[in-house]
Amino acid sequence: MSSRAHRLIKGAVLNFARSPGDIRTTVGNIISRGKQVQDLVANQPKPTFSNTVAPLANFENDQVTFLQNVSADKSVRDASSEAEQQLGAFRIESLMREDVYKSVRAVFDNKAEMTALEPEDRLLVEKMEEEYRRNGLALSAENRDKLGHIRKRLSELSITFSRNTNENDGRILFTRQELGGLPEDYFDGRTTEVVDGVEKFVVTTKYPDLVPTLLATEESRCPENIALLQEAIGLRVEAARLLGYTTHAEFVLKQNMAKTPQAVLEFEHDLRNKLDVLADKEIKEIEALKRADNKAVDAPYEGLFNWDFRYYSNQVKERKHKYFPMKQVTRGVLDIYQKMLSLRFVKATNDDFVGHFYLDLYPRDGKYNHACVNPIRAGFAHPDGSREYPVAVMLANFPKPTSAAPALLTHDDTLTLLHEFGHVFHHICAETKWSHFQLDSVQMDFIEAPSQMLENWGWEPSVLRQFAVHHKTGEPIPEDLVKRLVAAKNEGAGLFNLRQVFFGLFDMAIHNTADGNVDVKAVYRELREKTTHGTCGAATFGHMMGGYDAGYYGYLWAKVFSSDMYASRFLKDGVDNPQTGLDYRREILLPGGSRDASAFLESIGLAEQQA
């Protein structure tokens, strides 16, 4: 069996059935092996790229930390969380090793060797040296020690915040009458409890429950997380100041496209001013609908509540979900990507391929609450020329199938599926020499652009007709419904995007401060009232503790580029044009994080900053 075939088979088998003991053993082995590599590098008498940078870059972790988001066994989730904490602490210790940094710095300072390196190898040295500096290796020993303690504590806070959000689901009981107005299939297979002789339905804060009912309890769950976020804000600015920055936002944005907090704030405020006019019009429409409903039942109008916005926005949009069965939609979405990227999707075989992906689509206790893609194995080139193949897992919380019907998606769910598959194939299609330049290294204010761009396919009538079929009859979605759906595309766009602006402004407000002395709840409440006309809960705003700190603006920042990519090439050339798809795969996906995002945009003629 060839080396390539052996690695292909090995890469195809991921062991998700790990016991807590196995996880602990694996983590111990990873840390032990990592220390051996670092000791070897630190003791090199003449550091070079091959004996210093390459061994550090080739050291890879196991996927055991991923299990905290998906395992049905709480003991496994807990062990996986502990593993992440241990590996996070080890990574921080690793990036604080002065002896290892000296060897890396020696390679970085060797101009002759740097000039002779291939471009991606040279970039790897530059990024590795920069990462050590950003972790304090240019500081005094005392300040390095302070920074190390801060980073370890931040890792602990992030893990605890995430565990609280995943484990502590909001839960409330309603009678059938209290849930009046929800579709019949909402009740199929739903858990009930009898309280004082009355049957009540259990409604949670998982997405399939939360979106139709928009529970007030979502805003009040996990109150313990506020203190964790509050502490993290103070620690982040303390770390930034040790490294010579005024605020945490300045530290983060130095590596992003935006570069400065001022650029982000100008972008957000400009958007808010433009969206306010549209949102005011939308609010008047919603108010008119609610006033009419109240008048019909002789009830006084007492204003709009948070749950009113989605309820009445959906009435305005008139979206149906019976034409979006999960099986057909998933197959249809995969067909889109196959044609677009010139790929073929099959169950794992030993044929020539670029990577693997797994789908975990339905909610369950203890699982990650939202939708995301975890790149749990990076792709990279082995010294013998063969490749390690990337692996990604999509996590989602779509409505489950019931005894009466298969899993049925809303049109919004379909857009989410398109979006998350965009992340999957960004990871799978990246083809870099070093794992360092896979999906996680793409600039944060560009990383969403490819996925957002793919959402446009969900609004194309010709595309919808390919997979939108009635779940009982198999008949394609009626033309008039497609027209109404597409016509309603921008309904509620003002309020929705103002919500995104609010999140971005909140992020900047708590992270662009010189002392970290902010009242999270007060800032959240004040900005929410000024910006969104609605409500949300800071304690479950996982992005602030999950890697998007001082980076949430990136969703809308990237949205501008995603719209430009779609309009300039796909809309112009045809959404099913294979050459356009190949250009997109080659110029945007294949380089991963090995090129600055501005270089991606230059390659397709979109290098200008947002207007």
Biggest sheet, strands in spatial order? 1-3-2
Mean pLDDT: 86
Q: Please tally the helical runs, counting DSSP H or I stretches of 4 or more residues.
A: 23
CATH homology group of the domain at 3-138: Endopeptidase. Chain P, domain 1
Category from helices, strands and their pairing: mainly alpha
Properties at a glance:
Glutathione S-transferase Yfyf (Class Pi), Chain A, domain 2; single chain; 3-stranded antiparallel sheet; 23 helices; about 600 residues; disordered N terminus; 3-stranded mixed sheet; mainly alpha
Detailed description of the structure:
This protein is mainly alpha-helical. It has a domain of 136 residues: Glutathione S-transferase Yfyf (Class Pi), Chain A, domain 2. Helices cover 55% and strands 6% of the residues. It contains 23 helices and eight strands. It has a three-stranded antiparallel beta sheet with strand order 1-3-2, covered by helices on one side. Strands 4-8-5 form a three-stranded mixed beta sheet, with helices on one face. Strands 6-7 form a two-stranded antiparallel ribbon. A hairpin with a 2-residue loop joins strand 2 and strand 3. The radius of gyration is 25 Å and the shape is globular. It starts with a helix and ends in an 8-residue tail after the last helix. 39% of the residues are buried. The N terminus is likely disordered.
